[in-house]
Amino acid sequence: YLEDIPPQLIVQVIKEIASAVGVNGMIGGQVVDLLSEGKKVDKETIDYIHKNKTGALIRASVRCGCILAEAEDDTLIRLTNFAEKIGLAFQIIDDWLDEN
After folding, report:
1. Is-contact 56 26, C-beta < 8 A?
2. Helices 54-68 and 26-36, interaxial angle, to 10°?
């Protein structure tokens, strides 16, 4: 199956996943989350954590599907926006469950 996928799409998917899990994605969000435990944090920090933890992986999953399907730019933008909202909802619920 992989031989049917154009190499440039595979490279795009690898970049997408690497970005999502790296220091500017899930790892970065997790580090900031751990450093913020027990502290009063500002809205900007909370937004960063929520955007980058699991949300980064959800966003990357959706974007990779779009890339492999060779979706039009407008579709990629709309589905990225959708994925970010799902990721935010997931993270808010996850944080709430951790507190209760």
Report:
1. yes
2. 170
Per-residue pLDDT tens digits for 18-46: 999 999 899 999 999 999 988 999 999 98
Report CA-CA distances (Å) from 55 to 32, 40, 69: 14, 22, 21
Instruction: Tell me the per-residue pLDDT of 55-89, one tens digit each, with 9 for 90 and over.
Output: 899 999 999 999 999 999 999 999 999 999 999 89
Q: What's the gap between Cα 58 and its chain centre?
A: 5
| pLDDT at residue 14 is higher than 80 | yes
Q: What does pLDDT average to over the chain?
A: 92
